[in-house]
Amino acid sequence: MTRLILFAGATALFVVVTLAPPVTAQGAAGAPAAQGGRGRGAAAPTQPAGPAPRLSNGKPDLSGHWTNPYSPNMAGGRGGAVDPKTRQPLTIARRAEKFPDDPRDGQGNIKTFDLPYTEWGLKQWRTYDPVNDGDYAGNCLPFGMSRSINSPHGTQLLHHPDALAFLFEQNTWHHWVPTTAGFKWPEDLPPTWSGTSTGRWDGDTLVIETKNFNGYTRLDTAGHPHSKDMVLINTFLRTDANSIQHTVTVRDPKTYTQEWMNVRTWTKKPSTDVLMEYSCDENNLPGIVDGAIKLWKAPESVD
Which of 34, 79, 140, 150 has the greatest number of beta carbons closer than 10 A? Predict the structure, then answer.
């Protein structure tokens, strides 16, 4: 099997792929810096799309290897933030206004007023500095549910009437979502990097709510913040054999004054494109030890 080996510097990561087509240079969250390569998804199938397959319970089967659109900045760019009620661009006071000190985000871009922040949320956005403070993703720690879905490289979905499993190529992580009506997680589960998810059906749309976060992660490569009390809502509607309509809504009153959403389309990868092993620690751990990669430390307290 082909291997991916990851190296991270202070602000950039690089992926080396052996015995496979080349992959482009990457950003701080393992994201391609330019279009093309596997991170943007292989070419969509050329045959006409048939109907969406169904599970034994009659619901759409989401199983497959999918191109989940690489979304390093959920506030703008392709599939930027919209109002969930209207699906129109958000109305934000001081939109695109820069801060006096020109702070940079996780992609190296100058930060602006780009989302409807609370006072607390704005402080988290302004002070996020992965170069000088270290980036948890560059330290090979879990990206979190949002940043994993936003990452490149593709995601395998395994679907059963009782559950859905996400197999992320990014760092070979997984996330399990029970969909059985009435399922309850144990009440004493500790907060986690990726949160705890439950799924339910709204017609043919699978609605996944994720909560119980540890508060250490960011929503995307740029570094948009969230609190530990965020509820992340993902919906998936398989419209045909080759496409899934996907939305993600951020509900976090501590960080944002209103809910906001991204709307995307996932496309089926060809059968020749398979999940590859992704090893971050192999090169990053020595870099952390010798100081080439800034050591990230968890905050002493999480609000």
Answer: 150
Q: Six-digit token pair at 297?
A: 């430390």
Bridge partners of residue 248, in order along the sequence: 234, 262
And the tokens for 10?
């202070």
In this prediction, residue 218 carries a pLDDT of 97
List the one residue out of 216, 196, 198, 142 whose CA is nearest residue 172: 142
- pLDDT for 113 beyond 90: yes
For the chain, helix (H) and strand (E) counts, in that order, are 4, 12
DSSP β-ladder status, 155-160 and 64-67? antiparallel
* Mean pLDDT, residues 253-267: 97
Question: Is the Cα torsion angle 10, 41, 230, 157 positive or negative in sign?
Answer: negative
Contacts of 286 (CB under 8 A, 6+ apart): none
150-163 residue pLDDT tens: 999 999 999 999 99
- DSSP letter (8 states) at residue 235: E
Inter-residue contact 126 to 99 (CB < 8 Å): yes
Query: How many Å apart are CA 65 and CA 58, to the nearest integer?
Result: 21
Using 50, 70 and 90 to split pLDDT, how confident is the model at 79? low
CA–CA distances in Å: residue 58 to residues 52, 55, 132, 207, 245: 11, 5, 51, 16, 18
For residue 259, count CB atoms less than 10 angstroms from its CB and return exposed for 0-12, middle for 13-18, buried for 19 or more: middle
Q: Are 2 and 18 in contact (CB under 8 A)?
A: yes
Provide the token pair at 287: 């870099």
**pLDDT tens sequence across 233-250:** 999 999 999 999 999 999
